[in-house]
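Record format v2
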Amino acid sequence: MKVGVIVFPGSNCDHDLYHVLGKVVGFESVYLWHKDRDLQNCGAVLVPGGFSYGDYLRCGAIARFSPIMQEVEKFAKGGGPVLGICNGFQILTESHLLPGVLMRNRSLQFVCDTTRVRVESSETPFTRKVEAGSVLQMPVAHGEGNYFIDEEGLKRLEGEDRVVFRYVDEHGHTSDHANPNGSLGNIAGICNAARNVVALMPHPERVSEKILGSAEGKIIFESLLAG
Amino acid sequence: MKAKVTVKLKNGVLDPQGKAVQHAAQALGFSEVQDVRVGKSFEIVLEAKDPKQAKERLSQLSEKLLANTVIEGFEVEIL
């Protein structure tokens, strides 16, 4: 399958993703430039981490209106698999492809750390190879990862089993000290109602090769392969 | 025409930035500071046939771009 990695000015995880998808997992990976309007017949689209457009105004707020995102919106609404990582998560919420918003971390500090993330649902194109309840260790690196949604929205997410990733501690509990940023319900990642649009704050692409410390995150991309 | 748009977090949304400013203010001896909410202010020059139209257009712009209405509210003021 051909998979596309969007490149915005200020993206900085695009090369990692391109490499992991193409060289480690074995897809044909291509870059999709933010000014283009062509998804090049990709079967999946990944929105990478970074600081698109310098995070001006709000994280993801400007990227959302880029020409390529208009195409991603159409692709997502047609059921195409889309994964947002970190800044990609922020862009997908600003695009209203996912509900809620990522606010400033409660510590007000940029957090750069390894987190334990429990996969809550296998029912997405990016987790179908992961058994629900498994815990993956993945790094986070963000200043705005504090997931917020109103009470009604949260009820809906929980009721529809759309919280896909949650921060947990060494015992597998969603404790407060396992929560790196203050996210509601320790939420690290969610999906849309159709379950084809998924996003998370942790970086699976940074733990996809043993030589770089761990390959625990690779299964997220391999899940796509399993489709 | 000149206008000012103020964007701030809705009531009930925790503002950690505001809290940090409040604590700093108290540490500086401004113990009377009880609460701080941090927002953004946009000064905008635009063409419009009258203030009513300007306000309408800027409200649309705020909804679409300047504010994230999930957590933020906005006020448009024609100067």
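The helical segments of chain A are 14-25, 67-77, 87-94, 151-159, 218-225.
Chain A has one domain: 2-225.
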